Task: structure prediction
Amino acid sequence: STDLNVVEAFTRNLRRVRGTLRADVSVEGTWDAPKLGGTLSLQNASAMVPGLGVRYEDLEATAHLSGDTIVIDSLAVKSGDGSLRASGGIRLGTLTKPTLDLTLRARRFRVIDTRRFLTLDASGTVVLTGPVFARSRWVMAARPNTTRAKIGPRMNTRKPRPSGGPGRPGS
Result:
């Protein structure tokens, strides 16, 4: 097992990373025919994503590796007042060509929170299937229940002060 705060040494996109990664993994075979085995888990994980203005907390995940597939047994994370759960898998027919089969279920999950510009909380289900690096891209089926968004700067409701002197119009 390892403490996840080491992740900060490898990327500027995550800050205040906490939690534990436990892995008991075997990778055999070839690049074209991998044979995977073992388990992975994230416990008590959290991280700040400065570019999105959000903090992911209470991340708990377990997965197992079998043959050429990483199966997500459970994944749950909180952000804002909401949560996100994921299930499914990632097939590695070859190690360099992953194929997704993931279902994401969000409930008021804070996706973006950039001050004075955009706050986005999402609810609903998103299914991602298909190759990650294909020219045709993934197939994404979305069934949003509700999405709350605030876009634009906070408006100043005070009346402007005139800039001209007595008898002169303001500009």
User: Anything to note?
Assistant: The radius of gyration is 22 Å. The CA atoms of residues 11 and 64 lie 26 Å apart. The chain has a mean pLDDT of 83. The chain is about 0% helix and 65% strand.
